[in-house]
Please model this.
Amino acid sequence: MRGLQAKERSQVVEINSKVCKGCDSCKTFCPADAIAGKYGAVHKIDAEKCINCGQCLVNCPFGAPQDVVDPVDTVIEKLKSGECTVVATVAPAVRVAIGEEFGMTTGSLVTEKLYGALNKAGFKILDTNLTADQTIMEEGMELIAKIRHYVVEEPAQEDHLGPLPQYTSCCPAWIKFAEANYPQIIPHLSSAKSPMMMAGSLAKTYGAKEVWKTGPESIYMVGIMPCTAKKFEASRPEFSSAADYWTKHGQPGNYPDVDTVLTTRDLARLFKILRIDLNTVEEYDGHNDPLSAYSGAGTIFGNTGGVMEAALRTAYFVITGKELDILPFEPVRGLKGVKEASVKMTDSKTGKEIILKVAVAHGIKENVVPLIEQTVDGKSPYHFIEVMNCPGGCVNGGGQPINPMGTSWIDKYKAILPWN
Ligand code: SF4
Ligand code: SF4
Model:
């Protein structure tokens, strides 16, 4: 564990009382009922209930909720000091959003330009898509072990196998919600770390030794995320795998896996302070950064259904020895924002036929809570459930550029959006 002084952040988003008009908009977007205040009066966030998702921030018409964790100046100091290797791990949803902050069309994919700008600023790059692949392998293998035990009825190979259905664990807002409101669901959460946290431990172990040839404490790890809740996740004291690893190997230390997090908005501000323009910067393909290679599976992580599909493909391949074709997702009747699919497969080891039922949900209050209650009552028909807090997944996270229409436009256009 990272020493006793390590402390979880209590709050990432606060409402500026001088700006709040008491219009109640934020309350309608808050998945955790964390905002209090009468109509017309200044509103306040209850830090205990808040899951740090930033949906109030991207949807308030007056800009009153604000991200109060601002590490931009510190990261610039680290880049300029030359005293450490500053490594950026870039989430998939950032590269389709940051162009907007530089006048490009919404949704422009700017991976090489973003890499170019990071390179120019002095960052080394560890693409989060690479560690999304690791998360998928971990979640997929964990699911396979549970299927083999509970569905195929083989003796368990591991003594700490959690129950089915398995819930995904990469959204820190969802995890805080589950811990605070439904602790009975915790054994169902995948034990796999999120791609950002995997990136932190990879950078400060393998990356430090084999790639950047430096000590783990000389790496300053920056998560570049579409999400305000990632600032909370990085501060959780249990995320100290690299320090634990090196301590066991005779190099005691006390440091976090991820030192700080910049949202997409923060990163755009950092580039602007450093006078780096994404429109004109020289593109870079990451060829000098061996940890920037990844598969297509990691890329779909930022949409709802992405984690599920990637993990399921891995599980299907390991169980049957064949590639999975198209996953036929159907909306679940009575629940807007929940989709389900069934996959039939034959276990290549035992010849037993398995029908795996999976669900994908976003929108905690209206969609996820009914799924949790079904699970708690022992009536869930599913084996695997993907949960993302934000509408449509991390692409609409609370750290993305602020659209004047917030994220409320998504409901109106649901039928034609790619994740439906
Ligand atoms: Fe609610 Fe999310 Fe805002 Fe917290 S950050 S008050 S959970 S909308
Ligand atoms: Fe963050 Fe993605 Fe979860 Fe939204 S869905 S809170 S962006 S991890």
